[in-house]
Amino acid sequence: MDALGKSLAIVMAVAAVICIVPVLSDTADAAGEMDGLMLYEVNPFDNEGVSVYNYGNSSVDLKNYKISDNIKLESGEGYINFTQSITVKPGTFVVIAQDSGADSLFTDRDGIEVYYIGSNGIETEGRFELANGGDEVFLFRGDSIVDTVCYGSKLIDDPQLWASDYSFSQRTDTFFQRQGTYDTDSEDDWFNYVPGLTNKEFDPENPFTATVTPFMFPNDGGIPIYQALQSADKSIYITMYQLTNRNVYALLSDILENNEGFDMKLLIEGDSLGRDIEEDVPYLKMLVDKGAEVRLIGVADGSSSNRFDYVHAKYAVIDSETVVVTSENWTGPNLNGHIDDDVYRGDNGNRGWGAVIDSVEYAEYMTSVFQMDYSTSYGDVKNLADVFPNAVAADDYDFVEPENATFTSYQNVSVVPVLSNDNSYEALEYYFGLAEERLYAQQQSLSSSYMDFYDGRSPVSLMNQRANDGVDCKLMLDDSVTSADSVVYRINSSTSVEAAVMDSNPNLHNKGIIADDYVWVSSVNWTPTSFHENRECCVVIQSAAIADYYAEEFIQDFYRDFDFYGFSVDISEIQDSYVSGVEATFSVSVAPEGDYTYIWDFGDGSEPFEDLSRVAYTPIATGDGESRQLTVTVVNSEGERVSVSKTYFVGPESVVPPEDPDVPGDTETDETVGDIGQLISDNLYILAPLIVIILGAIAAVSRSGSKKRSTKKRK
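The structure corresponding to this sequence follows.
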């Protein structure tokens, strides 16, 4: 290339950057670290409004922005307009709200900068109101959308703005807030703001070092718990969903009697399912009379809200250096004090997991969680005497020593704390994604909202993704799951996950996971409430030896109850998106091989049709495109039917570029040309003056090149 050609190339490259960067920076990012002004809070209730947070490194002037509840600014719904400068400094947020004349949590938090609509140059064009039951919120810079969120009954059906098939479902008594610094344009970026929540970040890169003693229910009869409690000489803090074991109460009573000034605090769920707290009040009162502090949580009186649906956690912090975490409540059968050599005989407690973790750092972490939950500042925690002022203490109960037993401890083990409602679902996704060889789970609960096994959201769907990548995935459910046998049959026949229902001896109450060499010991059920509304406690232990310890028992449980010998179906050929009007192929695979009928439903409103296991189909989009669900029903020779589903997107070429590598021609070049052409069409007002500048630069380069050639000597 000669000097003129090189110069032209440089000029055109610079021009392309000048043209493209402003356009791209003005569009909402599908996923990534946040940098700049973003929506931070949405409040549809009293003093309704929003807040915006500056995640960037320089100050932002709101005068360049607008906030609307409609994707079109010119709509009748209206928008908030900033006619005067309001500066948002880096790392801060400001609240923009209606002035209702009354105090509210949204506007009256300490240290919050609040601006009211109608003052400081903040005006509304048209009618701006956020619906309590559901709405959309758009942050505009100029005329371009830079951030958005939808909640309640409203869903933004545009994958470029909202990369999810779900809106954020807010509570009806509080506003909601963005969490973290990573934007996925989905409901997972948001949580309900409730005062007194810990909002701990999930941080797998900074684990605590610990000595860990793993144990099993019902195998070990809770003996490691007794041993940990008996070792205490300074303090015991317990958070428990149900503490019903009389022998534990007797031990705690003895500890108080034998240790003057002992610091004992108990936080008990005041409204647990399946048990009246009144049954345990006499024993709690006995501890109070001997010097313990006992509080009940979940007993808000109407003047405030409960921070959690339930405090379902089961943990204890001992002497500020040891933490006991279990999946099981501390009940009579679970902490019976006896080694069980045949767990499939009798009723000696549930199937569950536990761990004793010696780590000052982890104990400090869990103490901070306990102290926040234990606080009476938020209206949902009350002293036992305030709830039951006339309670009568139970008579002393003689403590019965558990069997003498020795358990193996493992040193220099990494542990990571996980909590609900802070970060448990995020952590679940993370550890599922790490699994390369094995992913095992035992679960008491699987809610109806997680019965879609292909949506990429439910835990079973996430397991299936890993199974399709070759990971050995096994799941056990308790028979209390609604239609458990049918659910397990569907999992086995329509996903790559192997599933079984645990026999009732013992009852499966576990919530444990093994992902390669990571073990998840927890109280977290697979329900949205458990992930997002309860207080749950989980510890993730990284140790091949400990993982093998739990896995050995899991495998024994699994193959005792696994009995599926049917056929399984998987959609083996499908893309995330397709171009409207372009023919594509789709395939399903069935194991074992045999004589099957295949019924295809592409979710486009047309009638399902029978065809082979691989079909050609031309999707046709309407408008800017839409998400659809492909469902394939496979019927064997005996009339048994298995249906599998996956979601795909269909749109015009300008929205969804071709992804099929088998399309003839240079696909990458074709896409680039198409994108540039679209940019030129959409931004001609920018290009016109730039073309003049470019032509002038070309002329100057041409003159410079001519001059150089005329004075250059020949060799």
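The longest strand covers residues 410-420.
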